[in-house]
Amino acid sequence: MSEKVYPVPAEWENRAFINDAKYKELYAKSVSDPEAFWAEHGKRIDWIKPFTKVKHTSFDPHNVSIKWFEDGTTNVSLNCVDRHLATRGDQVAIIWEGDNPDDSKKITYKQLHEEVSRFANVLKAKGVAKGDTVTIYLPMIPEAAYAMLACARVGAVHSIVFGGFSPDSLAGRIEGCKSKVVITADEGLRGGRKVPLKANADAAIAKTGDIVKTQIVVKRTGGKVAWSEGRDVWWHEETAKVSADCPPTEMNAEDPLFILYTSGSTGAPKGVVHCTGGYLVYAAMTHQYVFDYHDGDIYWCTADVGWVTGHSYIVYGPLANGATTLMFEGIPNYPSISRFWDVVDKHGVNIFYTAPTAIRSLMGAGEEPVKKTSRKTLRLLGSVGEPINPEAWEWYHRVVGEDRCPIVDTWWQTETGGILITPLPGATKLKPGSATRPFFGVQPQVVDANGGVIEGPCEGNLVIADSWPGQMRTVYGDHERFQQTYFSTYPGKYFTGDGCRRDADGFYWITGRVDDVINVSGHRMGTAEVESALVAHPAVSEAAVVGYPHDLKGQGIYAYVTVMEGIEPTEELRKELVAWVRKEIGPIASPDVVQFAPGLPKTRSGKIMRRILRKIAENEFGSLGDTSTLADPTVVDDLIANRGG
Ligand code: 6R9
């Protein structure tokens, strides 16, 4: 592992909100007296009724309860839109860059206010009230942000489903939170190719009985779509019918803002619930300090709003701060592999936040497509989603940032609502591959297999000892699962599911998941989800899925499949199974390798020994460990002899 160190550049120490001395002072205060610290920083958003209580949290595994600012009231859209009208009504809130480079537009805070208010009135007209859930299945178009903020405005809880998910996955999520309204587009556009969103949503809705009463459809491409009279309505027609005046609904700090489904190590995806007050305070504060966002900066996060990064760092954090946030519909290599940098130059982007998988794929195309662009406006780079390997970090720093832009490697999760471990560009020296130090109020600890807290330089599992305002509050409809998943492994602590190393400087190096969650191009995938899709195929009797190192994706999906008696494990079947999983879950879940296996390595009690399957997938036959407890040790020889990939 690289231990190269990049000191904080002098100009950053001077310009940044937080330098090292300030970081140390504020961090010490944030953990020694969280009440006082957050009482002060909770004021960064506007409250309708100010809070008098700050922190009321318990990590007791049988009684987890997390409340922040619990007697305060506010509204998220009030903070992201209305409060900027007086000071920056004509400032651009959202720069939208379409898939096609000729297609872009700018939306000011005034325009955003009108769009959000109108659509909020549409939701009301369709019977959406405070506490109702709304499912959003949209491409990266401004309407996605309008829809999120309109839900917040009327007190509805949105659940965004990534546009790459299949009808089945969408159906499960609509059912999970019983949305009577679904918002989609006729088609999405990515890399010049059309994505049949409306057709997918129609298929999903058909699977959910009579839950969905209204489907609101944005006309994006004008492509032909099926229409269900009485249920389907056009966004542009409905917004034209209503007034542009819609006062924000007063919400309690602890009222839910959104649900976002995410993969865990077992079972179906969980509905992670985030609430109004604490989430917004945390998203806004991290956005300002981690990206050192100053008025007038142009900020671009390349995530999709279907993931938590899009929620916190395209929409809520930046807009709460009155920022100009860029939203990009397309992909990094269309129409050319220079697209990211062309967009940076076109809009004068100062702060650029992307994922290691994108960096690695661009790296593969060499330096020339980057170097032929100017990028002179870039000041700061960010990384999120998976560990960034030092080679990719160095390339990002040297080629993209021309050795002048610090990189903030931000570690966090859907569950954490905002960034927990990260450098601050004016305060933290950088080590390629390390997420460095905790943000204010965050108390990471490293524990050993028995749950003992390890001090000093060490390696182990990462837990967080106490709550922070952006933390998820519960699993939608299943508080028991919330307690069980996150607080029972190391009772009294939040278990992240990640392993990490802490070095002599107290810097954290995230080493990846230690549970059965794999991270494919920064997208979380439960191996159990892929397995259940595979065994749903009539030819499959058993399947076991593991992750393995993949040069571009970080991790690839390796599936071991046992076929039913009498079925031939042919090349056609292999292809069919890959297509099947794509259809069942979505393209991001496509197995990279399918290996037919007459038997899986199991203990005598019938438990699949994934440790062995992982080693074989990783090509590490020499270190299989003890296989003597297997019911039939000879299956291992067959697995090795027929290794795929
Ligand atoms: C924000 C987001 C969370 C998992 C997390 C970890 C991995 C995210 C990382 C990182 C190393 C970073 N992860 N950022 N690992 N360094 N900077 O990605 O949320 O989709 O819920 O994934 O991603 O394994 O546990 P989510």
TrEMBL record:
Residues 82-466 form the AMP-dependent synthetase/ligase domain. It is an enzyme of class 6 (ligase). Transmembrane segments: none annotated. Residues 23-80 form the Acetyl-coenzyme A synthetase N-terminal domain. ATP binds at residues 385-387, 409-414, 498, 513, 524. It catalyses: acetate + ATP + CoA = acetyl-CoA + AMP + diphosphate. Belongs to the ATP-dependent AMP-binding enzyme family. This is Acetyl-coenzyme A synthetase. The gene is acsA.
